[in-house]
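Record passed on underneath.
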Amino acid sequence: MKPNILLITADQWRGDCLSALGHPVVKTPHVDALAASGTIFSRHYAAAAPCAPARASIYTGLYQMNHRVCRNGSPLDARLDTIALAARRAGYDPTLFGYTDVAPDPRSRHANDPHLTSYEGILPGFTVGQLLLEDDRQWLSWLANRRGGDRPDRNLHLTGTARPVQPNRDAPAYNADETPTAFLTDAFLSWREEQTVPWFAHISFLRPHPPFCVPEPYNRMFDASTAPRPVRHATLAEEMAVHPLAALLLPTIPQSSFLYGAKGRVVDWSPEEIDTIRSIYYGMIAEVDAQFGRIVAALKHSGDWDRTVIVFTSDHAEMMGDHWMMGKGGVYDGSYHIPLVIRDPAIAGGGRVDAFTSAADVMPTLTERMGISPLNHQDGRSLLPFVENKTPAHWRDHAFFEFDFRDVVTNKPEQALGLASRQCNLAVLRDAAFKYVHMAGLPPLLFDLGKDPGELTNVADDPAYLSVRLAYAEKLLTLRAEHLDQTLAYTELTEQGPVSQPKQ
């Protein structure tokens, strides 16, 4: 009998924020327990940022250089296969709880189609079990029905008494049973009870994505002042001097993107205020972990636990004060290092994997487990050998991720940097020794991770590192050449018809 498949993404969850990997403050007992019975991947990286590009790699198995979802709002090419379409071919009715942030291909839609007015579309192939968009409208309606009375608005996220809102650890105007995470968990659990055949569900939790607020007891559960300090230069001026892109982006990041009702710039928050926000962020992670615990308990109670493959991950991570930054994007690991835990009840747990893995590996992993093949080229590779406690042959020795900072609506980055839109992108190749960042229209970056694990000193122009820079540039060029789309390149028409026997 084929297994159930449960794919969970928790938006903006840092890869180091798991007690199973030794975080000194935040506790994640339920994800830890999943790791203990499955496989945890300690060097797992998003393939891109922000949300839509990152998710496109999860859902298609492709790097950004091939799926071409460059920013939130960039359409996903309708020709590409997706994990949801693949699941349908495997006989599942893949059902979504949350969101996928996929802008539809406008070439297949009429100009008046309202789906062309938002990037918060649904990945082709999914049935919607419960939608949750970033404006919270579905959750707010659920709250109104739950509480009775008028429908509340997003002011529920306001905390503290100061206006504009300042970083604080007060609770918002909802309790732990009323969070957006609880809302999606309730919807999934109700749906699961109705299933009579093997199922495929994707729960896309919005938290710990901003706004950074969480109810009791999570709001005061952790003290970030006892955690390692954010990695950054002593002054904003020193941080901005590292690269023109940092000088452009850092002063423009608004507090309101992270704290509902705040005003001002992120770079103006004090270290103590950043600690307050980090404490809340850890609490939000614990709240998601607790709701995941409800899911595990229900699966065990129903008997589904022993027939459900679970993948727990994130789309991208969160800088959380590193390099004077909040949010995601840019070049640093804080934006891209994300959690991944896989449990397959048919396979004894593989323990901890320290090899470099990518979000693009999720789709080929699940398609292999479902016994079907993707319909186009895949940049990722199946992780099932690791889950089986085996080391795949010729596995990569690096992480690779991309960031596109164009704005094809306003052209503000292009104008500020004097670049064409096609030049506003970067690619990162990072292994255990060095991180090399190649930019199409700006100078490169090189960090010696052995001496500088915090990525503070750019040595790209240091003559002593010239040979290293050249070697990594060549390695990146080779990677891009090897990952050109092979969908039809692996096929040849012969007298016997189409033949595809590529050497792997």
Summary: The first strand starts at residue 4 and ends at 10. Residues 4-391 form a domain with the Alkaline Phosphatase, subunit A fold (CATH 3.40.720.10). The first helix runs from residue 29 to 37.
